[in-house]
Design brief:
It is built from two helices and no strands. The protein has helices at 7-13, 20-37.
């Protein structure tokens, strides 16, 4: 069984230095991927939303 992501990890991933527009795009894309694949991780560890 895979480890569930923590809120701390989620917030740390949002702290990356990139333009806000790109960050929000990756956040939405990765969250959507997690929902569609029904997984705890989108497959991009460290990315916003993962």
């Amino acid at each position: 069984m895979t480890k569930r992501p923590s809120i701390g990890d989620f917030l740390t991933n949002l702290d990356q230095s990139m333009p806000i527009r790109e960050k929000i795009g990756k956040l939405v894309q990765n969250l959507w991927r997690r929902v569609v694949l029904r997984q705890n991780c989108c497959g991009h560890p460290g990315a916003p939303g993962c």
